[in-house]
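YM 10:42: M48 family metallopeptidase sequence, as discussed on the call
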Amino acid sequence: MKPLLLALSIATLVAACATTTSPTGRTQRVGAVSQEQLNQLGAQAFTQAKAQNRQSTDARQSGYVRCVVNAITRELPSGWQAQWETALFADASPNAFALPGGKVGVNTGIFTVAKTQDQLAAVIAHEIGHVVSRHHDERVTRQMGAQAGLGIVGAIVGSAYGQGAANATSQLGGAAVQAAFLLPNNRTQETEADVVGQQLMASAGFDPQQAVNLWENMIAASSSRAPQFLSTHPDPRARIAELRGRAGALAPTYQRARASGRTPNCG
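YM 10:58: structure's back
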């Protein structure tokens, strides 16, 4: 009886989900959980990350990251402009993440590839782009519809840590669900976060061309294994070409932002 009730509950929940349009015009299915619940789960995952990973004691670097985050989040729509919390983790891997509820985590290893404030802005804006594009909501909704026993918190944490999604999903539902629902969706979401993030950084007064330089640095820093940031995109060189094309189109946005006084000085 309990499995039947669980299946019926989830079927009812998924049936109640909404269809919406992403910032790039893509149709999304969302709403398996409320935004308030997503924010709570994001806060829970962030607390877990801080408990399990050592945080940097470098006040200058922490302030640098916070300055970039603040400059970007000021450009968000009003519903997303709550105070964003940041954490800088003492971790050599070049990675970062953002979560619902206004949470941003950055590894100190990101500074080996994000060599300027504009390049760091490209990283952070990309991650915040995932949040404002409701990618976590979309991922949870897809997973809940895919398998009755799939854990919501695992989905949130998987979204935050990229490659860790495979481990969480294997524990909670198996590789078949991960292959069918997570990895293809990740590639779509990565591209969308590139688009939204590059627009955000240009509006905040960061040079959108530096997104190209960032990804070139990421590829140059990788040897036999691509860094985590590149793991979900099928063709990094194609990604760079797309970023370069958008950078030219966003030049007027960047110039208007600078002319209006949005001139971040974080580094």
